[in-house]
Amino acid sequence: MSGSDDRRDEARRIADDFLDYAIYAPLGAVLTLAEELPELVRRGRERFGPRLALAQMLGKVVADSARRRAGDVLRHPGGASGGDAAPAHVPADRAEADLPIPGYELLPAAEIVARLPGLTRRELDAVRDYEVAHRARRTVLTRIGQLLGEKGQ
After folding, report:
1. How far apart are CA 69 and CA 80, in angstroms?
2. Rounded distance between C-alpha atoms, residue 150 and residue 142, angstroms
3. How far apart are CA 153 and CA 149, in angstroms?
4. What pTM value is reported for the model?
5. Tell me: the pLDDT tens digits for 69-115?
6. What residue segments make up the domains of the chain, in order of their start?
7. CB 132 within 8 A of CB 90
8. Are 68 and 135 in contact (CB under 8 A)?
9. What pLDDT digit, counting tens, does each position of 9-59 carry?
10. In sequence order, what DSSP letters do the residues of 99-115 get, joined into one string?
11. What is the separation, in whole angstroms, between the first and last Cα of the chain?
12. How far is CA 12 from CA 1, 5, 19, 27, 120, in A?
């Protein structure tokens, strides 16, 4: 064999390698991925699904807490009760212990709303005052307003 034949063979091998690595390998990877994708998704969901669900739940808790704290800061700048942050009828020293619903601060709005119809007008006023001064949740305040309106008739 001559030197030119060796160079031609070497060029052919390089061209074949190029086709293998630059064209055929990526095409084969795409085809394999398309065929295996459902199984990969199943395995990923099985392995990381519970972790992602927990992370999502924790993210919501943190976001809700941050939203409440930001609302508190906006209503009470500097940590003190701001002058116009709450209506004048709200006693600044109203404590959670004064409320007719035990564990009030730990309850979600839906549970509080469910317990409101059994309260007296005075108890509803106490809950309203506390809610306005602390979290000001519309669902709770709206329901109290409805109940007070019904009882006032």
Report:
1. 14
2. 12
3. 7
4. 0.39
5. 887 777 766 554 443 344 445 454 556 777 999 989 889 999 999 99
6. 3-75, 87-152
7. yes
8. yes
9. 999 999 999 989 999 999 999 999 899 999 989 998 888 888 888 888 888
10. SSSTTGGGS-HHHHHHH
11. 112
12. 16, 10, 11, 21, 94
Give Cα separations from 23 to 1, 15, 19, 34, 140 (angstroms).
31, 11, 5, 17, 64
Residues in the chain: 153
DSSP symbols for the chain: --HHHHHHHHHHHHHHHHIIIIIIHHHHHHHHHHHHHHHHHHHHHHHHHHHHHHHHHHHHHHHHHHHHHHHHHHHSGGGSPPTTTS-TTS-TT--GGGSSSTTGGGS-HHHHHHHGGGS-HHHHHHHHHHHHHHT--HHHHHHHHHHHHHHH-
